[in-house]
Amino acid sequence: MTSADVLILGGGSGGYACALRSAELGLSVILIDKDKLGGTCLHRGCIPTKALLHAAEVADSSRESENFGVVSTFEGIDMPKVNEYRDGVVARLYKGLQGLIKSRNVTFVEGAGTLVDSQTIEVDGVKYTGKNVVLATGSYAKSIPGLEISGSIMTSDQALNLDYVPKSVIVLGGGVIGVEFASVWKSFGADVTIVEGLPHLVPNEDEAVSKALERAYRKRGIDFILGTKFASASHSDSGVDVTLEDGKVISAELLL
Fold first, then answer.
1. Which of 49, 91, 122, 198 has the fewest C-beta atoms under 10 angstroms from its C-beta?
2. What's the pLDDT at 135?
3. Do 164 and 110 sit in the same domain of this protein?
């Protein structure tokens, strides 16, 4: 099928939800994505990070088990096994999503799509048309001026695939992604410092939420520097040196 009532570019959370609802309403649907069905959220975002957060919670529970009258010994983190658990969670949900798409008779096209006109998307030389076109092309990890992504300087995409627990990490940005990774790494045993240019962590949330999170992170020993912007970063023998706009230099094994 190369024409449909609804033609969707992007198979992430927005795209597949639109596809399923459109099919439910009796419309024919073509869904296009250059990667796996499910997009960033399922494969490189929300779901794998929540799996890591659950593993981190188990680690914390093991450390604190005596508080509940349970005698146990915490011996460390086996990161390859953690990643195996994470991948299993993603695989189960991916299989379920594939089944949903198939059961609703949505046509899924894998390939990079280009919007040709208001009703046409081209994939590998094949043109697909739709009475209605939905653009749900999603998000990607970006860099900032003065920061080159390589080696020990990474985005969340690379951080998700680490097969070891770093000794120390600087997290540049105290938004939802930054504080999630900071929490996971702290629970896994790393020393963590968050650098946020605005006055609070998770600055898009209500101030009461930000302050509650800051209190919790102080209690856990997660350091954070607020109201100070990033200036530059450079690789060092031990990892990364980060210079802030106020001239302060902080160092760690990794920079996220």
1. 91
2. 97
3. no
What integer pLDDT is reported at residue 1 of this predicted model? 73
Q: Which tokens belong to 17? A: 């939800």
Q: Quick one: 179 and 126 in the same domain?
A: no
- What span, in angstroms and rounded, lies between the C-alpha atoms of 44 and 160? 7
Whether residue 55 is found in the same domain as residue 160: no
Residues in the chain: 256
Give the model's pLDDT for residue 19. Answer: 98
Residue 137 near residue 32, CB atoms below 8 Å: no
User: Could you tell me if residue 145 is inside a domain?
Assistant: no
Q: Which residue has the tokens 């450390």?
A: 63
The predicted structure's pLDDT at residue 117: 95
Phi, psi values for residue 9, rounded to 5°: -105, 110
11 and 118 together in one domain? yes
Residues in the chain, pLDDT under 70: none
Closest CA to 200 of 176, 180, 164: 176
How far, in Å, CA of 254 to CA of 135, rounded? 35
Q: What are the angstrom distances between the C-alpha of 10 and each of 38, 115, 125, 145, 224? A: 9, 12, 18, 28, 36
Q: Is residue 104 part of a domain?
A: yes
The pLDDT of residue 174: 97
pLDDT in tens, 97-129: 999 999 999 999 999 999 999 999 999 999 999
CA-closest candidate to residue 52, choices 202, 156, 191: 156
Q: Domain range for residue 41?
A: 1-140
In a domain, 178, yes or no: yes
C-alpha torsion 213→215→217→218, nearest 10: 160
Q: Which of 204, 193, 205 minimizes the C-alpha distance to 230?
A: 193
Sheet holding 107-110, edge to edge: 107-110, 29-33, 3-9, 126-135, 120-123, 113-117
